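tool_call predict_complex ligand=adenosine-5'-triphosphate
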Amino acid sequence: MIEIKNVSFRYNYEREQLSGISLTVRQGEFVVLTGPSGCGKTTLTRLFNGLIPHFYEGTLSGEVYVGGKNAADLQPWEFGKLVGSVFQDPRSQFFAAVVKDEIAFGCENYGILSNEIQIRMKEAARALQIEPLLARHLLTLSSGEKQKVAVASVQAAKPTIYVMDEPSANLDMAATKELMEVLKKLKAAGSTVIIAEHRLYYLMELADRVVYMKNGKIECSYTSRQMKSLSKDRLSEMGLRTTTLSWDVNKIITGLTGEEPVLRVQNLAVKAGKSSGLLLLDVSFCIKPGEILALTGPNGVGKTTLARVLCGLVKEKSGKILYNGTGVKASRRCRHAWFVMQDTDSQLFSESVLGEMTLGKKLESTLLEKAEEILNELDLWEYRERHPASLSGGQKQRLTLAVALMQQTPVLILDEPTSGLDGRNLERVVQCVKAQAASGKAVLIITHDHELVQKVCTRIVYLQKGMLFKDFCLHADSYPLAVDCMLGIV
Ligand SMILES: Nc1ncnc2c1ncn2[C@@H]1O[C@H](COP(=O)(O)OP(=O)(O)OP(=O)(O)O)[C@@H](O)[C@H]1O
Ligand SMILES: Nc1ncnc2c1ncn2[C@@H]1O[C@H](COP(=O)(O)OP(=O)(O)OP(=O)(O)O)[C@@H](O)[C@H]1O
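tool_result ok
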């Protein structure tokens, strides 16, 4: 289905990002591409769906065959007929305004009859449990909901080859399981599937092959059995995440300060949209300096909306937000809390990575030293002159965190800071967050990432159906509850 022979590629003005890649994917094969952030996974998938050379310009050499045809002779619409793609950032692939039109869009392009489109749309929506969202505007969806819609759209179109770039990045555990079921069906139907991923645990039963990339090259390739037998040390040496869903009880971090809360949320009620009902009904909790709190709960429960209220981007319907014991009105909350959003593109404004770090600040040598130190910690210093838009998904994600580390606010809110990160970069984020907490900041992390929670969080706040359902410190005794929260089975 796919044959890549000795392919090298370099984006304009950049060093080579793919070097001498050869890869064959047979019909019906299920291949997982993995490797450290920036190693070239997304770039490789862009060869399969024709985005290279049709959208991304650069220098390409070698031969690419897709569906038995020389890719050099294929027009973009011909790629579209063969290959269905789910991008790393689902927002960038939406064409329609409303969910059901988006799911139908791919089918319409394939010339499928409208009766059949309706059947497929319903099937795909059921498989991903997004039936209640069909009439909704795409812009109003949570990030996990958007990701499900993107997967449903390709599933409904039934292309010959499926190419998905980190399709689980924003999904909670239950939704990841639904995704796994969808993928299982695609495999059973004999489809060819290629997935670029950092989270390997949900793919281990499905993958025929795991291809490990590093620095633009294919380093090695494993069967999933071989992959599963790699030791934790070997995986971390390779910069990968674990292949199983396990928590080591001994590693749970505890530690709280006895100080007064820096942020107190009292009986907060928030509406989802202007004309819709209450999303958060009555939420109260507080966070102290030095605490690292995991805010978790199912996709669409209102975690991001809560964070937006805390930093004043959304107004509450009722309730109080107190910073250091004083009620703060929405327009002033950004002085107290810095929010790193999930959508990295909407918060990168400068022409260069270094410019982003110093944006709006007086350029003093201490500031530049701090920026250099942080960029080094997050392995971004070599990209300091690069335009932020040209970074890989994981690089952008680390840059938005790096910018947050430049700020002075006593509260730091991070929305899914590790969703697209490999094991090594996850560790880098962990170290940065620990240092922030040690310096007296309160860190609130919205996350579905169980590895992150285990490595760094001291407390879990779990939202369900608009209410704060659980709020507890992490220690050996609360371990089973923590696992249930991360699995979404409380
Ligand atoms: N205008 C609107 N009308 C109706 N519902 C809306 C509107 N805007 C947002 N919502 C809904 O509010 C819910 C909260 O979204 P939010 O992004 O806060 O969830 P989340 O818990 O962060 O989810 P995720 O884990 O998927 O990121 C979602 O179900 C979303 O669809
Ligand atoms: N449009 C672009 N222009 C210039 N360089 C780019 C562009 N897109 C990606 N790159 C660079 O190519 C390299 C590979 O990026 P790619 O997105 O393929 O990595 P990745 O393995 O998918 O990373 P991640 O896991 O972080 O998503 C990175 O160093 C990235 O900065």
